[in-house]
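Morning, I've got a small favour to ask if you have a moment. I've dropped the whole record in just underneath, so have a look.
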Amino acid sequence: MKKIFKYMFVGLMACTTLSSCLESSLDTAPTDSMSGTGLLATANAALVPLNGLYRSMYSAWSPTGNTHQCFGISAYNLAGDVMGDDHIMSASGSGWFWYDCLYNVKSRYTSTTWRSYDLWNCYYTWISNANYILSAEETMAGTEAEVHNIIGQAYAIRAYSYFMLAQSFARTYKGHESEPCCPIYTEPTVAGTEGKPRSSVQEVYNQIVGDINKAVELLNGTSRKHISHIDYTVALGFQARIAQVMEDWNVAKKAAEDAISASKCTIAKVSEFKGLNSVNASNVMWGAEIISDQSGMYASLFSHMDADADKYGATARKQISKKLYEKMGATDDRLTWWNPEDANNKNGGYQQEKFKFSDIQTWMGDYIWMRIEEMYLIAAEAECRLGNDAGAREYLMDLMSKRDASYSCAQKSGTAMGKLTSDYTGSLLEEIIIQRRIELWGEFGRIYDIRRLKQGFKRTADMGWPTDALLGNRNTDDPESYMWVLTIPQSEFDGNANMDPTKDQNPVGDTK
C-alpha cells in the first residue's frame, strides 16, 4: 500500500533551518543542535520552528527551475492577479507567471516544476509544520499567554493554508459545498502515514472555520514579537476573508470591524506608503520585513513588478487595464500608482508604479500581505449585502476620503452585479467591488474575487491586453468554469493510496 511521505519532518526541518534567517529581529537561534522534541518543549523554543515557517512564506524554496515565480505568499497573490481581467502582462518576458496568465499550467500536473505541485506542496508543508506545533498544545511549557500565542498562530496558519488550497483546487464554496476539495490532516504525519482521501468543500471549510475561530480565541490578549507573525487582528482579517467567501456576512462584518477596532493601523494616504515596500507604514497589519541577506533577488515580487530595476518587470511589464483605470476620478491620489504616459505602454495597459524596490541596488523591499484598507472594504461589502446601504457607504467613504477629495457614493444603493465583470449596473455593491479592484490591485489575487462573485470576464485589446493573452477561445465568461481550478499534482497520487487519479483528478480542461 502506498504511504504518504511528504510534508512531515521534511517540512519541519526545512523550516527550522530557515529560521535563523529572520536574524536578531526575531531573537532566533541556530537549530542544528536542537531535537524536534526540544523545539516544542517550551513556547520560547517553539519560536524557532515558527519563525522558520514564516521565513518560508517569502522564500524561494520550490524545486529548481521554478523558484523565480514561487516565492511564497506574494508570488501566489501575483499569480492570482494575472489570472484575472485587471492586471495585464504586456509580454511573456522570461516566462514567469505568463503560463498562469494564459491558463496553461493544468496539463503539466505530472511535473514538479509547475504551479500545481508548487502550491500543493507549499500549503501542505505549512499544514504539516502547523500540525507539529499543535501536537504540543497540551505539553508546551510557558505562561498561558506565551503558549496561546504560539498555538494560536499555528491554528491560523493551518486555517489559511486550507483556505488557499480550497480556493486553488476546488470551485468556490457557495453552491459547490458537496464537491471534492482536498485531504484534511490535523495530526503530525510521519514516514509511513497513510494518505487520506479528498474531503468535500464543506468539510474543508468546516475545518477552516474551526481553526480560525480557535486562533482568534487564543490570540486575543496576546502580543506578537514581529510583524511577520500572525496576531489577533490578522487572525480576524483571515476570519473576515473566509466569511466573505462563504457569504456569511454577519461574521465577515464583525470580524472586519473587530480588526479595525483592535488594530492600531490607520488608513494611510497614498503618499504615506509609496512603493508598497515597507511594513512600517501605518496601514500594514501583516507582512514580511526583508533584511539585507534575505532578498530573493530575481525570485522576488519587486523584480517582477518594478520596471525601473531593469529585471523581469521591464521585459514582462505589469499594467492596469485601461478600463479599470478610467473608473478613478480626476482627483484620485491612486492615479499615481500607474503611468499612462510611459512610452513602454505602447498599445498595452498603463505601466504600474505601485510596487517599487525600496533600494534597487540591494534588491530590498518588504512584502505587505494584509493592510487595514481591506478590512474597511470587507465591512462595506458585508453591510451592503445585509441591506444596510448607509453603513456600507460610511465604510466606503472612510477609505475614499483618503483617496479622492471629490469622491461621492451618496446616490449608490443595492447589490445588482453584472454577469461579466465588465457589465456595469451602477449598484452600491458594484461600486465597493470596483474600489476594491483598484485599491488591492496586485496585492490580493483578483481571480479569487471573480470566483466568489460568480462573474465571468472578458479580456479585450481595448483594455490593453496583448493578443496572445486574450483567451478568446476559452470560456472565461462562465462563472462555473473549471479554468481556475488547478489539477492535483501527480506526486500526490503516487504517494497516496486513497486518491485515485481516474476519479479524483480535477478536470484538465475548462469543463468537467
In short: The chain has 19 helices and six strands.
